[in-house]
Amino acid sequence: MGLLAAGIGAGIVAVGAGIGIGMIGKSATESIARQPEASGDIRGAMILTAALIEGVALIGAIVCILLALGIGG
Amino acid sequence: MVIDWFTVVAQIVNFLILLALLKRFLFGPIQDIMTKREEQVASRLNEARKKLAEAEAKKKNYQHKLDELERSKKEMLQDAKEQAAQTQKQLEHEAREEIEKMQHNWKEALASEKEAFFKELHRQATFNIINILKKLVQELSNSTLEKETVNVFIEKLQSLGKEEQQKITTAVSGGEAQTVSVISSFELNNEMQQQITGSIKRLFLDDFKCIFEVSSSIGFGIELSTDGWKIGWDANIYLEDLKRNIEQLFTSDVETIQQQTTQNE
Amino acid sequence: MELNIDDIIFWQYEFFKVNATLINSWIVMLLLISVSWLITRKLTAGIDIKRGQAFIESFVVYVVDQIREETHEEPDKYLPFIGALFLFIAFSNIIGIIPGFNAPTASLSTATALAICVFIAVPIFGISNRGFSTYIKHYIQPSPLMLPFNIIGELSRTLALAIRLFGNIMSGSLIVAIILSLSPLFFPAIMQAFGLLIGIIQAYVFAILALVYIASATRVREVKQNNEVK
């Protein structure tokens, strides 16, 4: 049961993080295409935002790992 | 998957140690050196700026000096040109003057020479012609030229009109010394003198003194002169023609020579 | 393959123990300090700069630029902390791809320790910059009701910082280990190269986030002053 929950949770986390980071990448590349001279700043902001989303996603992933390993359960 | 709290504390301590050591060994020196370099660069920039300004000022100064030099050079050249032109003019003027002077001198010399030549020619021609005449007269008419001259003179006196005779008479008698001087180019012998005095007495008046003179100023002839009156015969009249002819010939020659010389110049 | 490198214990006496995390951290520290000592031993302010000095100077200039951009303040105060964070995490991640070594950041303890350092450093910098009372006041900024949310926000972002670093590095090494068991040739190398990139990015992200948190703690006063001026 825990393994199943972990698997489903990890999948949902991956979906959420993927959508979020994908949107960031989309708008970032669009912005760079529009303003190539600001590509450095945009890339920095993109990595920062992606890292923030990734942090949330990783928290979910960690929870899934904990469930799978049965720790704290 | 639990957090090992001892490791956490140890890692915090580790990180603090690392922080201190990195600050001591890496960021401190690097920042020092960078600020130092910035200061150096700033000072160098300042120096460069100062030097640039100095160089600019120097350049301006030199440019100014160069301009001045150029100007003075031009002025000097102008002066020299003017001076040269002046000197040239002066020299030309002097040379022309000298040439004119020389020409003048030459002309004078020529004139004087000409005069002398003509005088000499006159003298010689007179002498020669008179000699030839003497010989001719002697050979043709068995008489001397002097005698014939005196005869001609007496004839001339006799051929004078009444009025003129009267005038001469009054002139001789009105004069203080009451003298008549007869001037001739040759010596008159007694016979001739008597002949002349006789003819004068017969023509004009009795009471007078007659003075005979010899003069070379008359070419060949006899002249009678009282106060303000002169009557005489002279061969010079004929000789003058000859002289004039020769002179004309000579001057035309000289003119052509002069023209030629000017053309050569 | 141990999932938790804290459990690889070399020496233990009662509460004190020396595990793989500590050993690898010390190796990274030794490496960093010796390299920086070697480079800074013969620094020159002149024109003929050595390659090491040029590299380290360009790195410092980059960090200084980032700090200035974020905080709009003189970066001298923050440079050692941010620089040390970045260097330590980056070198820890790099050392992880060498066989026989483990990345110390793959341990949740190390990540937590670094996050706690940031959690402590933020109020320290804030107070030193703005004074104690003004700094404390910003926890109840819109209204005193926001106090618990502010505190939870601070705690959660610290937790996220730790989890992000740990999760990325640990999952990277875990994936490499799993792929190694499936196909021992070629693919682990690609994954390790990818892990290298992820490691550098994570070091950058960690340092930048720490900087952002510090900046948010120190910059409030300026905004207020600007408002007063307006």
UniProtKB/TrEMBL annotation, chain A:
It is found in: Cell membrane; Membrane. Keywords: ATP synthesis, Cell membrane, CF(0), Hydrogen ion transport, Ion transport, Lipid-binding, Membrane, Transmembrane, Transmembrane helix, Transport. SUPFAM superfamilies: F1F0 ATP synthase subunit C. Residues 4-67 form the V-ATPase proteolipid subunit C-like domain. The chain crosses the membrane at residues 6-24, 45-71. GO terms for molecular function: lipid binding; proton-transporting ATP synthase activity, rotational mechanism. One of its GO terms (cellular component) is proton-transporting two-sector ATPase complex, proton-transporting domain. It is a multi-pass membrane protein. It comes from the Bacteria. The keyword Cell membrane applies. The record marks 54 as: Reversibly protonated during proton transport. InterPro entries: ATP_synth_csu_bac/chlpt, ATP_synth_F0_csu, ATP_synth_F0_csu_DDCD_BS, ATP_synth_F0_csu_sf, ATPase_proteolipid_c-like_dom, F/V-ATP_Csub_sf. Pfam families: ATP-synt_C. HAMAP family: ATP_synth_c_bact (MF_01396). Belongs to the ATPase C chain family. Key component of the F(0) channel; it plays a direct role in translocation across the membrane. A homomeric c-ring of between 10-14 subunits forms the central stalk rotor element with the F(1) delta and epsilon subunits. This is ATP synthase subunit c. The gene is atpE.
From TrEMBL, chain C:
One of its GO terms (biological process) is proton motive force-driven plasma membrane ATP synthesis. It is a multi-pass membrane protein. The keyword Ion transport applies. One of its GO terms (cellular component) is plasma membrane. Keywords: ATP synthesis, Cell membrane, CF(0), Hydrogen ion transport, Ion transport, Membrane, Transmembrane, Transmembrane helix, Transport. The chain crosses the membrane at residues 20-40, 78-101, 107-127, 165-187, 193-215. It is found in: Cell membrane; Membrane. One of its GO terms (molecular function) is proton-transporting ATP synthase activity, rotational mechanism. InterPro entries: Alt_ATP_synth_F0_Asu (IPR017692), ATP_syn_F0_a_bact/chloroplast (IPR045082), ATP_synth_F0_asu (IPR000568), ATP_synth_F0_asu_AS (IPR023011), F0_ATP_A_sf (IPR035908). PANTHER family: ATP SYNTHASE SUBUNIT A, CHLOROPLASTIC. Key component of the proton channel; it plays a direct role in the translocation of protons across the membrane. Belongs to the ATPase A chain family. This is ATP synthase subunit a. The lineage of its organism: Bacteria, Pseudomonadati, Balneolota, Balneolia, Balneolales. The gene is atpB.
